[in-house]
């Protein structure tokens, strides 16, 4: 599976259940988010604009995704919302298409355009994005076509500040049709084994 195919497999609407560990405070909080993902072909205007923003030749991009999200966490103040949108563009290395440069219109840990790296190792996608004062590392993998897992860490001042784990269930496919079969029995057993480890 190529990295753009991973983005295509992710297209649709997802319900994400998240637990974030704030390591400095030795506390954790939970929350939920609805995420909408649309795969973008290499010639999509949003991909072309993002490449120009980062001064990257648009001809080197192989596609990307447009992502929106809305949700909340347990420690949110009244009226506080976690919502936004971003565009990703994939620019593979010339000698290894399994890794390359990841362009973002909006970062994961800071609200600013960002440039990071991606690497596809087997069925797992890793995104590493440095910012001015921190670094975020995210990993994504599928248990089955409608169940995706995600982990992330944010490093600040040389140490890991937060660590998060998300279970993401697809609720609509790429065409907006409802998804009813989230986890088959075999996949449920795989997930239970993973969580118990």
Mean pLDDT across residues: 88
Note the gap between the termini. 27 Å
Main sheet characteristics = 10 strands, antiparallel, barrel
Uncertain regions: pLDDT < 50 for 5+ in a row? none
What portion of residues belong to β-strands?
over 45%
List the main descriptive attributes of the protein structure presented here.
mainly beta; ten-stranded antiparallel β-barrel; 197 residues
Please, could you describe this protein's structure?
There is one protein chain. The protein is mostly beta strands and 197 residues long. Helices cover 14% and strands 54% of the residues. The chain has helices at 3-9, 45-53, 185-196, and strands spanning 12-22, 27-40, 63-73, 82-93, 96-104, 114-121, 124-130, 134-144, 147-156, 159-172. A 10-stranded antiparallel barrel has the order 1-2-3-4-5-6-7-8-9-10. The longest helix is centred in the last third of the chain and has 12 residues, at 185-196. The protein is globular and about 45 Å long.
């Amino acid at each position: 599976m190529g990295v753009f195919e991973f983005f295509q497999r992710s297209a649709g609407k997802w319900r994400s259940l998240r637990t974030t560990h704030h390591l400095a405070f030795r506390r954790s909080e939970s929350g939920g988010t609805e995420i909408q993902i649309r795969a973008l072909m290499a010639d999509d205007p949003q991909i072309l604009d993002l490449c120009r923003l980062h001064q990257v030749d648009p001809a080197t991009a192989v596609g990307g995704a447009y992502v929106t999200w809305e949700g909340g966490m347990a420690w949110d103040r009244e009226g506080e919302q976690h919502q936004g949108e971003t565009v990703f563009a994939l620019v593979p290395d010339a000698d290894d298409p399994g890794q390359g440069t990841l362009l973002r219109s909006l970062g994961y840990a800071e609200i600013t355009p960002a440039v990071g790296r991606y690497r596809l190792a087997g069925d797992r996608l890793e995104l590493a994005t440095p910012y001015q004062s921190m670094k975020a590392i995210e990993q994504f993998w599928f248990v089955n076509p409608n169940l995706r897992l995600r982990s992330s860490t944010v490093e600040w001042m040389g140490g890991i500040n937060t660590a998060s784990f998300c279970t993401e269930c697809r609720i609509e496919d790429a065409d907006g049709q409802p998804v009813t079969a989230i986890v088959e029995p075999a996949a449920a057993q795989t997930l239970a084994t993973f969580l118990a480890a």
